[in-house]
Specification:
The chain is 41% helix and 17% strand. The protein is built from 11 helices and 13 strands. The chain has a 7-stranded parallel β-sheet with strand order 3-2-1-4-5-6-11, with helices on both faces. A two-stranded parallel sheet has the order 7-10. A two-stranded parallel sheet has the order 8-13. It is globular. The two termini are 35 Å apart. Bound molecules: uridine-5'-diphosphate-4-deoxy-4-fluoro-alpha-D-galactose. Uridine-5'-diphosphate-4-deoxy-4-fluoro-alpha-D-galactose binds next to helix 7 and strand 8.
């Protein structure tokens, strides 16, 4: 099969993908500086899969450290998750976001080039779609600008990768635009564990359910949606992880740069998610309606036909599974 390097492989999406990649027969090497994840995750991935993982606590922007990894392992493909990811923080600290996200990508690509590694899968985001586009967002939606520096870093790295592919016809790059990943592994051993006050909806809901926070703030109920609250395309993180395995298989058979949306194609509002969570888990989520959050858009969901047709992948799990698995994970913390 081959050996796959996952940068950011102990993070939320990275750890679930590590499990799927190992279960699909690949060997996994993880590079992660543990700045937003826990040292215990490596052992948890090994417990779930029954296989060993090579782990390096390094900054992916550290060229010498990355060189050592590529010297020690014959890496067949790289899945690049490492990076800063908080939209609001990126508005306050744009330089940190541009520096970190661009540096890590460039260092990684330069190291790959030196070692003749030609396959690259990139964690991009639906945030590259301007809200000026109609929903559902398709991979052909127009580039009409991003709404925050985090989004721009994704946009810029996509552009860098397109140019790298033009310059080297042997390169194989897949850009995966994630919609809203939530949920957790059914084992309850890995999941999302943000430090501090969660920025994202599901970790906030699970912390309210556990009594860590008194209530959820619902950011606006005057959007043009069925109940006035924002609509998103929530996707179970285990389905998202499977999308990476499909992308790996695609990478080995194709050259050039391709972009795919990874979502379910279905939109749910904030209150849809809250009500479903309450119903399937038998817990109450008190909430208060507050002002809109700056930079939020009303509706975001994916056209998922390209991933289905070209990668042969589609999301299998529904919103109820996402709510159950997220709650199981929160209770294990
Ligand atoms: N929301 C609340 N209260 C909260 C948190 C969120 O009402 O405490 C609402 C938001 O207003 C939005 C929805 O819940 O309507 C989802 O918000 P999230 O913060 O969970 O997710 P976003 O859609 O804002 O952002 C996510 C990722 C980004 C990514 C983007 C792509 O966090 O990294 O999807 O569309 F860029």
């Amino acid at each position: 099969m081959g050996k796959i390097l996952l940068t950011g492989g102990t993070g939320f999406i990275g750890s679930h993908t590590a499990v799927k990649v190992i279960e699909s027969g690949y060997d996994v090497v993880i590079a992660d500086d543990l700045s937003n994840s826990d040292a215990s995750v490596k052992g948890r991935i090994e417990r779930i899969t029954g296989k060993g993982v090579s782990f390096y606590q390094v900054d992916v922007a550290d060229s010498a450290a990355m060189e050592e990894i590529f010297d020690a392992h014959e890496i067949d493909a790289v899945i690049h998750f490492a990076g800063y990811k908080a939209v609001g923080e990126s508005v306050v600290r744009p330089l940190a976001y541009y520096r970190n996200n661009l540096d890590t990508a460039l260092t990684l690509l330069e190291t790959m080039q030196r070692h003749g590694c030609k396959s690259f899968i990139f964690s991009s985001s639906a945030t590259v779609y301007s809200p000026a586009n109609d929903v559902p967002f398709t991979e052909e939606s127009e580039d009409l600008g991003c709404t925050n520096p985090y989004g721009w870093t994704k946009f810029m790295i996509e552009q860098i990768l397109k140019d790298v592919c033009k310059a080297d016809p042997e390169m194989s790059v897949v850009l995966l635009r994630y919609f809203n990943p939530i949920g957790a592994h059914a084992s309850g051993l890995i999941g999302e564990n943000p430090s501090g006050v969660p920025n994202n909806l599901m970790p906030y809901i699970t912390q309210v359910a556990q009594g860590i926070r008194p209530h959820l703030n619902v950011f606006g109920d005057d959007y043009p949606t069925h109940d006035g609250t924002g609509v998103r395309d929530y996707i179970h993180v285990v389905d998202l992880a499977a999308g990476h395995v499909a992308a790996l298989e695609y990478c080995t058979a194709h050259k050039g740069c391709e972009v795919f949306n990874l979502g379910t194609g279905q939109g749910y509002s904030v209150l849809d998610l809250v009500k479903t969570f309450e119903r399937v888990n038998g817990v109450e989520i008190p909430y208060e309606i507050t002002d809109r959050r700056a930079g939020d858009i009303a509706v975001s969901y994916a056209d998922v036909s390209k991933a289905r047709e070209v990668l042969g992948w589609k999301a299998e799990k529904g919103i109820e599974d996402m709510c159950r698995d997220a709650w199981r994970w929160q209770q294990s913390l």
